[in-house]
Write a structure and sequence with these properties.
Blueprint: H1 2-21, H2 30-41, H3 47-58, H4 63-84, E1 94-95, E2 98-99, H5 101-104, H6 107-126, H7 134-148, H8 153-162, H9 170-195, H10 202-225, H11 228-231, H12 237-241, H13 246-250, H14 252-270, H15 278-289
Antiparallel strand pairs: 1-2
Helix pairs in contact: 2-6, 3-4, 3-9, 4-6, 4-9, 7-9, 8-9, 9-10, 10-14, 10-15, 14-15
């Protein structure tokens, strides 16, 4: 556990150095630049980029190409966090132990930071530096658009907002989790195969379904059982707002067992790749063993 945690920490440090360099060098507004840089600099595990890069490495994709796709998905993730923290959404004051963007700056700046992150993600993917084949670039743009839009993350966030204080069926909870969290994980898992121009990516789609749902269950468990100091944000938010999750639907024990089964299924899908998948399997297991 300590070994993979150290690997993730070291990766995040190196990735952030690369990530910050992708921000535009010239700004009409220094405040926008400072707010964008701040929102990235507060850190994070960068798990989505890491999964994207590890799958790409396993498939023989050049690192410089995979890094750009990894930056694009993390920009979308960062934009979603900046917007989620706003008073009209989750109304959070802390993110990873630091003031949220709207608290450090103001609401309007936070909205523009999210907008800028989103457009920059697609600017990066559309550049020839991401892949020489325009069809590959278009496929990446198309898939990230789906993952982030009304049939993905944004749609899931809307379902999440209207679900407060409501009783949801199992299928409604699963759909919410799939859109809100699972779709970005799907992109993280299929971007490498797309970059490698692999024809059949079904195995990675199935892998992502298990991984994304297990990740969300663990997030919901941490919201109940997690240490606020370690997590750097408030806990028990879902409970206070009456939000239905798989944890509230099944209970702690059954939800934990479900997450373990999902991860087991994910690992089994990687077995055909042999020794090449060793680190990816370790990362997959980390998803439900993390404490923040």
């Amino acid at each position: 556990m300590q070994k993979i945690e150290k690997f993730i920490f070291n990766f995040a440090e190196k990735f952030d150095n690369y990530f910050l360099k992708l921000l535009p060098s010239n700004y009409y507004s220094p405040k926008l630049h400072d707010a964008m840089e701040y929102s990235i600099s507060v850190g994070g595990k960068r798990l989505r980029p890491l999964f994207l890069l590890e799958i790409s490495r396993m498939l023989g994709v050049k690192k410089k190409l995979a890094l750009r796709a990894a930056a694009a998905i993390e920009l979308i993730h960062c934009y979603s966090l900046v917007h989620d923290d706003l008073p009209a959404m989750d109304d959070d004051d802390l993110r990873r132990g630091h003031k949220t963007c709207h608290k450090k700056f103001d609401d309007a700046t936070a909205i523009l930071v999210g907008d800028a992150f989103q457009s920059l993600a697609f600017e990066i993917l559309s550049d020839k530096k991401t892949h020489p084949n325009p069809e590959v670039r278009c496929d990446l743009i198309n898939q990230l658009s789906i993952a982030a839009g009304p049939l993905g993350m944004v749609g899931g966030q809307m379902l999440d907002l209207v679900a407060e204080k409501k009783k949801l069926s199992l299928n409604e909870i699963l759909l919410l989790q799939k859109l809100k969290t699972g779709e970005l994980f799907r992109f993280a898992c299929i971007a490498g195969p797309i970059l490698s121009e692999l024809k059949n990516i079904k195995i990675f789609v199935n892998y992502s379904k298990n991984l994304g749902l297990a990740f969300q269950i663990k997030d919901d468990l941490l919201d109940i059982e997690g240490d606020e100091k370690k997590m750097g944000k408030k806990t028990k938010k879902d409970l206070s707002r009456g939000k239905e999750t798989l944890v509230s639907f099944y209970g702690l024990a059954k939800a934990k067992k479900m997450s373990q089964e999902l991860i087991k299924n994910s690992v089994n899908l990687l077995k055909p790749f042999g020794i090449k998948s060793k680190r990816l399997i370790e990362l997959t297991n980390f998803v439900i063993s993390r404490n923040k």
